[in-house]
Every structure is written in structure tokens, then in C-alpha cells.
Amino acid sequence: MVIVMKKNLQRASIIICCLTYFCVDCRTQQSIALPTSYKFIAKNNASVCLATDVTICIGSTLLEELSNIPLPQLNFGSSQWSITGIALSKNGRYVYVAAYGTDGLYRYDKIEKVWRTITPPDAGSDVSALHVDENNVLTIGTGGYPASHESDARGLFQSLSNGEGWTKYQFKDSSARSTPGVTEIQLCDDARLAISCVQKSGTAESGIYIEGQNGVWKRLSSRTGQILASGNYLYSSNPTGSLSIIDLNNESAPPKQADAPATILAKWKGDTIAAFYDGLDDGRPARLNLLIGKSVVRVLPLPNTPDTPEKLKFGAILTEDNATQFLLLGGGKNRLLGNSAELISEVVNSRPLPSAVGIFETPNWSVAKIDGHGWFRIIDVSNWVQDSSMFRFLPFSSLDLRAENDGLLVTKQRSVVYVGALTTSEILSLEGDTTLLSAVRIDDDALLCSTHEFGLLSFDLDTKQWSQFPSDGLPVVTESGGSKRPAKARAVFLVDKEIYAWYDFGEVASIEDAGLYRFSSSWSRINSIDLPAGCELQKIRTSSNRAILTLARYENSRLAGSYVLRLQVMEPKQIVVSDSLSTIPDVTDALGNVDQSMWITSYGDVWTAKQGSLNRTKVLEGLNSVIGLLNDKGLVGTRDRGLIVLDAPSSVRENSLVNNRDPISVWPLPVQSGSILNISVEGEVNCINNIDIYNLIGERLKAPSFTLNKDESTCTVSIRTNGLVGSYFIVMQSPTGSRAIPIIVEAN
User: Fold this and answer.
1) Distance, CA of 306 to CA of 391 (rounded, Å)
2) Strands across the sheet with 643-646, in order?
3) Burial class, 279, CB count within 10 angstroms (exposed 0-12 / middle 13-18 / buried 19+)
4) 3-state helix/strand/coil string of 567-587
5) Is 112 exposed, middle or buried (0-12, 13-18, 19+ CB in 10 A)?
6) Which neighbouring-strand residues pair with 584?
7) Which of 462, 666, 674, 738 has the fewest C-beta atoms under 10 angstroms from its C-beta?
8) Domain boundaries, the chain
9) Is-contact 250 263, C-beta < 8 A?
10) Beta pairing class for 643-646 and 30-32
């Protein structure tokens, strides 16, 4: 079969000698729409811009639909890169974006619709602060992130030409010997710069600095955090909620501690400042404290804030008619409110952009953590709901979790909780000095717990008594006084009622003691697994009859290997389904269903392999971050598309489906939107029965307008590309099956 694709405008053609077969059956992919995970806000009289971790959304006002503009993913490393700040030029033409883990600073031109990298040549890529003042001067600071290491590139840089040229702004801390990392920038009313800095070397001093005479900077406070200049005052709020006010007319006076707490600061109107506070543990709703100078003039409670563990994002906007509106982002809704907290509108964009950061599954339902919005319980694609109670049982750190019956067995440092479909119960609560690492129910009446201090302990659920679990055959460690104690098991779990324990290399006396142990009257190390010594457990996913362990091996603090170990009922020995980093980057999570394993890497790629096969298939690329299961389907959490449901068994293609030939990659020539795309199919008598079009995440779009022209040996399909811009797959049904042809449609 030969297919010829033609463009009417350019008369270009592509001849494909072997029809491309799309590796994922796009008809089985569905996306679960969830609230957009906005993080940043920028607004002036010309434009408004909101940003997620990976996308900016632009409009004229927040009462209209916003356009989504993804960052160009050029030379980005891990898929965990993220936007860390945005700013607008005064005329609204340019959006400046600081992105961590990338080339640093980017500029989007709304008129030409193009991105440019504008990082100063000597600034490194670690842009941690940016600010545009009333004179359209762009100032950036570098080196302020915890992982920052580019000491020679730290400092301040200014541009008077929208990033076309840069001047390094001389700054040292009060010792005049070191340059701290810059995290915040403000221009005071008297035209002096103020910055917040964090310590990045032995002599650098953290704190708030203000520009002085002859390039000498003065340290005003040892505190760090967000700063906001207004009138004669400089306001500072740190992440703990502490709000301090510096009087710029009396800089020698210590900062005044304000009566009202704040986590986010914004200009409200005139000389009024809005201090937004959302304390998670104080039992009070989020609120706005309006300040003039040093005094709180109004407290505006926000009673409609949902019960969520996520701190809300806040931003104030002064409209053209001099009225104040403000944004509340998160908690299940992104809302635009008036200056009395009345709802004006929900904030919308052209498509939802939720960032999924965690997925856990039971046999019949799953939960997903959506950044900025909390936990969502998912029964199926159309049945999902925000569960505001889930955060009490599923903290996102120090978490050990097992699927059990129709629920989840959650191990926290001080308790073990069962989260079911309808009920939640605390099984175990600690009051002593023991710290739990992992737990599993070994029968109806007992838990097996791995503890930090005492090794493996069993807990009788009837008598509420602890006892030492048999430890013969397990590793021990020698303490400083010569006494021995049981080593700490990283995880304990069951596979078909057999008890297993995993010991990391860093918790045992020698590398030979690390690894997987199985209990049968006594413990024994499993030596038959084809794994190199020194592997450490990254994640574990279990069900009643199998366990999937994601492992990593490090050499000189660098990742040297990544592995996926699958333990399953009725298998005579354990098998490794992901062998090394030779063809796959580091694996961050893995899971398995009845006949297939699936895993994800730090580069965002999702792979699958059928049971007993080392032939791997990449099923998804892009900004994918976590994986899970939804009943018998795969569930992929992304950073920009929400949750994608994969019909996992159909994701792996056998070679026989493409006539024993390996699939080939095709990069079609682009066509212009509105033009006619001609596809000629030769060698088919009955030709094409049906045509559909899908986007790259598998969503079927409205059927395109097309015509068929047939003769005895050739069928020509003419497709109109009106309303299409981007990359798509044309899926054609013929007597021999379905075939997918990639196309690229460019805007006029």
C-alpha cells in the first residue's frame, strides 16, 4: 500500500512506503478534566497573565477566555522543570517567564507569537527573581533557589530594552565579600531597589537589602521572603505568615511586627496594601488584611474557602474604573472576586491545565492529588469528585501505602489508617518514641510494622499489644557502644500472603545485606534476582497477588542504574522488566496489572511491556509526572493535561500487526489551516470506510469535512483543515483495519 499526501498551496508530497501505525490506540485514550493549577499572576492596564508550572495563559481581562501558550521545550532536561515567575512589559506586548531547570529567562511576543531566550550571557540559567517597574525597566535576580550552585553568576541584571541588552547591577551583601542569591526585587517610591536574599556561601548574609549611595547596600532586616514597596514603607512576609513593616524614613529603626499575619502581599488601591493569609492549622478561613501604613484598616474573611490542605494563591487587580478585584486560585475553583469577596466569575481558559502530582489506587477506585486543589476521588472517567477529607489521611510526605481489599492502608509516622470507599478508621495510633516506616496487615488480627527504633514489630488488633516479630536471618547493625540492633526495613509487604521486606544499602552493615528478604518460619535473603548490589527502593506498589518495586542504584551520589522488579503469584522466580539505563532514563515509578507492567521516567515518558517480555513500548511522551491504575486501565497524571486514561492492554503492539515490520516514524510536511489536504491510497479496492481525527492525547475531535474520489486502483481523500492548528492523527478505517497518519497544521 502506498499513501501520497498533498498540499494544494505548496504542492508538496510525502510518499510513505510503509503505513505508520500509531503505537497507542488513540480511540481508547480519555482525559479527566480537573481544575487548572495556576501558580502565578501578572496584570497591568494592557494585559493579564496567569501561569501554571509549564504554561502561560494570556488575555485582556479575566472576564474573557484566556489563551494557553506553552513554553517551548527546547533542551529541557527532566520533565520536572517549572515556571517560577512571570512579569509583563508595560504595553503588554511581552511576557517574561523565569523557568527553573531550563535555559533560564524567556520572552513571549504577543504580536509576533514567538518565544525567545533572553537570559543575560553571564547570569547563568538560575533566574530566581524578576520585576518590571513603571518605567519598563526589567530587573532580574539569580541564584536564589535551594539547589542553586552557580556562585559566579549570582547577582542583579537590568535591561532597558525588553531583554535585548543587559547591564550587571553591582551588588554585594553588607560584608562586601559575597553575593547572596536573590529571591525578590522591588522598586521603592524613591527609585531605590530593594531585594530579598538568601545565604549561598560561607560569608554571605541573608536578609532584606536596600540600595544606598555610591553602590553601597544596606541590610534592613535578617528576614527573607516576599517584599512589597509602597509609599514610605517596605512590607515583608515570610512563609510562616510573619508580617513585618520597615519604615524607609527611619531605616535604623527595627522592622515593626504587624498585628495581621500574611503569606502573600499585593497592592490593593492607592496606598492600601492587601496581606493575604491562609493558615492551614488555625481553624480559620483564609482572609485579607487591608493595611495603610502600619495599621490594619479592614479584615475581609473569605468564608467560602473549601476545606482543603492546599494553600490558596492570591492576587489583587486594579481595574480601569479604579475598582479592586482579586483572584483566589485553588481549592477546587479559580475565582475572580470583588472587593467585598463577592463572586464575579470563575477564571477560565481554552482548556483545563491541571497538574497531577500523586495517584494511589485501590482495586475499584483511585485518588489523585491535583496541585493547588487537593485530593480527588475517581471512580471512572465521568465519576470523580473533590474529597476535602482525604488530606487528613493522605499527607503527601512520609507516606507508606498499600492497596487492601477495597481501600488503602496508609502508614504515617505516628499512625496506621484504613481509607475505604465509604468509611475511614484509625487502626493504630502511637504515643511513645516509636516511628513507623511501613505497615501491612498479615492476617485479620495483626499488623506487621517496620519501625525506626526497634526493627520489625507485630501489633495484635484485638489485644492492642506489641511483640517482636521473628528476626532470624535479617540484617543487624552495630551501634557506637558495640551493641547490636535490628536494621530498619524500608518496606514490608505481602504477595499472596507471603511476607517480604526490603532493606536499603544505607541502612545495613554491608552491601551484601541489602535487598529483598522473604519470611517462611525464618527470614532468608532472595539471591536469585538479577539485580546489581546496592539498589535502593524508590517506590513500591502492591495488590493482593503482586508487587512492583521501583529501584535505583547510585555511584558517587550519581544515578547509575534504574530497575523495575515485579513479584507475582505463581511465578517460580522474580523477574526484572526494566533492565538498565542503557535505553531508558531513570525510572521514577512503576506499576502492573494482570498481564502488563507500566512505568514512567524522569523525562516524562511512559512505557509498557507485556508479562514475561522485555520488549518495551513507549506509549506517551510529554510532561507526564505520575502513573496509577483506574480499575483495569492505566492512569497517567500530567503537568498540563490532567489525568489521561490508557487502555493498557492495547497499548503494546505486537509486530505481527504491522506485517512483521517495525513501525516507522513519519514527520509530515506542515499544511496551512484552511487548506485542503489530499491523501491518496493505492492498492485498496474498497478503500476507506470512515475517517476520524484525534489530537496527540487521544481526544477524538469533531469529524473533519472530507470527500472521497475512487477509481479502480486508487482512492483520494480530500480533508479540509479549517479550524485546526497543531499536530493531529488522521485515523482511517478500511477493510484491513485502522491506520493513523500524522499531520501538522500551521496557522495562516
Assistant:
1) 12
2) 30-32, 643-646, 633-638, 624-630
3) middle
4) EECCCCCCEEEECCCCCCCCE
5) exposed
6) none
7) 462
8) 2-23+660-746, 118-346
9) no
10) antiparallel
Q: Are 221 and 208 in contact (CB under 8 A)?
A: yes
Element (H, E) at 367: strand 366-370
Whole-number Å distance between alpha carbons of 369 and 388: 11
Query: Are 488 and 438 contacting, i.e. CB atoms less than 8 angstroms apart?
Result: no
Enter the CATH code of domain 118-346: 2.130.10.10
SS3 529: coil
Contact (Cβ atoms closer than 8 angstroms) between residue 636 and residue 606: yes
10-residue mean pLDDT series, the chain (748 residues): 36 25 42 88 90 92 87 74 93 93 89 91 85 94 74 79 90 60 91 86 76 80 91 89 91 86 88 85 79 90 62 80 85 87 85 89 89 88 80 68 88 90 87 87 92 92 92 88 86 91 90 91 86 87 84 82 79 51 70 76 82 68 88 87 73 34 41 78 62 70 73 74 77 68 74
Residue 596 phi, psi (nearest 5)? -155, 150
- Decide: 361 and 630 in contact? Cβ < 8 Å: yes
Q: Report angle CA 118, 122, 123 to the nearest 5 degrees.
A: 65
| Residue indicated by cell numbers 511522551 | 621
Residue the block writes with cell 527532566: 78
Cα 520–Cα 522–Cα 528 angle in degrees, nearest 5: 70
Topology match between the domains 2-23+660-746 and 118-346:
no
**SS3 category, 630:** strand
- Write down the residue that cell numbers 489563551 correspond to: 67
Determine the CATH number of domain 2-23+660-746. 2.60.40.10
Task: List CB contacts of 325: < 8 A, sequence separation 6 or more.
Answer: 62, 316, 317, 319, 336, 337, 338, 339, 344
Q: Give me the amino acid identity at 37.
A: S
DSSP-assigned letters across all residues of 327-348: EEEETTEEEEEETTS-EEEE--
* Contact status, residue 88 vs residue 56, Cβ threshold 8 Å: no
